[in-house]
From TrEMBL:
Database matches in InterPro entries: Aspartate_Ammonia-Lyase, Fumarase/histidase_N, Fumarase_C_C, Fumarate_lyase_CS, Fumarate_lyase_fam, Fumarate_lyase_N, L-Aspartase-like
CDD domains: Aspartase
Name assigned to this protein: Aspartate ammonia-lyase
Domain Fumarate lyase N-terminal span(s) in chain numbering: 18-348
Organism: Phocaeicola massiliensis B84634 = Timone 84634 = DSM 17679 = JCM 13223
Gene Ontology molecular function, alphabetical: aspartate ammonia-lyase activity
GO cellular component, one term: cytosol
Chain ranges of the Fumarase C C-terminal domain: 415-467
Key words, A-Z: Lyase
Top-level taxon: Bacteria
GO biological-process terms attached to the record: aspartate metabolic process; tricarboxylic acid cycle
Amino acid sequence: METKLTEETRVESDLIGAREIPAAALYGVQTLRGIENFPISKFHLNEYPLFINGLAITKMAAAMANYELGLLTEEQKDAIVQACQEILNGEHHEQFPVDMIQGGAGTTTNMNANEVIANRALEIMGHKRGEYQYCSPNDHVNCSQSTNDAYPTAIHIGMYYENLRFLPYLESVIGAFRKKGEEFAHVIKMGRTQLEDAVPMTLGQTFNGFASILKDEILHLNQAAEDFLTVNMGATAIGTGICAEPGYAEKCVEALSRITGFHFKLSADLVGATSDTSCLVGYASALKRVAVKMNKICNDLRLLASGPRCGLGEINLPAMQPGSSIMPGKVNPVIPEVMNQICYKVIGNELCVTMSGEAAQMELNAMEPVMAQCCFESVDLMINGMETLRTRCIEGITANEEHCKMNVHHSIGVVTALNPVIGYKNSTKIAKEAMATGKSVYDLVLEHGILNKEELDTILSPENMLHPVKLDIQPRR
C-alpha cells in the first residue's frame, strides 16, 4: 500500500488502484471502497459503540500477543495499544463510517479498524497518516490475524457487553411490574381464558405474573451470552492458524481476559468454530423469547385498558397524546403499541439471524455482518422500548377498582368456585340459567336453596377464590 500526501487529501493505493482519501481521515483506501460499495442499510458501524470497542479490544490483545512473540517492536505495540485505548475511551468513533451490512464476511469492518488504529498509531509514533512503512494496517495492526477470526471475536466481545447493558433495563421493567403488583394486590378482577370470563383473581396477580415471566428470561440471556466468551482468535483464515506463530492464539486469548476482566476461552476446534455462528443464533433466540413475552404483556395492557366505556376498562394507561385526527377525545395506547412493533422487529431479526446462520458454506459464514447488525439492533430496540414502556406507561397505570369488582359480581365465571361443593352438573345448570335470565350466580344459588347465605359467602369470598383452600362445607352433589 502506497501513500502520497497533499494539503487536503492523501492518495493511497491498494491492489485495485489509487484513491484520494480526506487528509483528516484516520481510515484509509479500503474503508473508502467499503463506503462506496455498501451504501445499503444506513446502519453504520459508528452507531454501535460496543462493537467498535470489541474491535479495539481485539486489536489491542493481538498487539500484546504479537509483541510477546517478537513480531512487533515495543514502539509499535505501545502505539497500537494507545490508539485502541483512545477508541475505548470514546474517541475516533466517527472514523468508523462503513455500513454494517456488507459483502466480504466483515473484511470492510476489519480493515476500517486496522486503518484507523494504524493511522492513529502513526501519529502517536510521530509519523504522518498513511506512512504505513512504520505501522501498517495489514502487517502490524492485523498481524497474525484474518478477518475470519478478528471480526467474529469483536462481535462476541461487543455482544457480551450489550447483554450486560441490556439486563438493567429488563430488570427495571420487572421491578416496575412488581411495584404495580403490590399496589394492586387488593383489587379483585376476573381472570380470562381465550378472552372469555374464567375465575376471579387480583390485578396484582396479573402484574406479578408479568414480572415473573420476564424474570425467567434473565437466566436464558446470560446462558446465551456466555457462549460469546469462547472465541476463535488464532484461527486466521479457515481455522488452521496459517500466518500465526505457535502460542499466539493462547497469548491473545489471555490478553483478552486481562483487558476485559472476563474469562475468555479458545475454541476447542478452530476449523469448526470459524464457520460456526451459533452463538449469535442462540442469543437472537434468547432475545426473541423476551420479545414474545413482552408482546403478550403489551397486548394484555391494551386489552385491560380498552374502552374506556365499551371495552374492558379495568386499568387506565397514561394518556400520552391525542389519538385521532378526526375523533375528538380519543386516546390510544401508543406506548404498548410501539413496544409491540419493536417485538415484531426483534422476532423478525431472529429469523434473519437463523437463516444467515444456516447459510455458512465450507469453512466460513459470509453472512455474519447481517447477523451482527440484527443482534446489535435488537438489543438497542429492546432497551429503548423497555425504558419508554416503563417510564411512560407502566409507572403511571392506575386501576378502576370498582369496575373490576362489578365485573366479578356480574360474572358467571364465579360458578367454578361452586364445583367442589355442588358438583359440575349443578354448577352448569346455574351458569346456563344465569346466562338465560341475566340473574347473578349468587342470587340463583340462594333462590334454588342449594346453599345458605353463609355457605355461599364463604365459597365466593375473594380470599377463598384466589388460591387453593379446604372448605369445611358438606358437598351437595
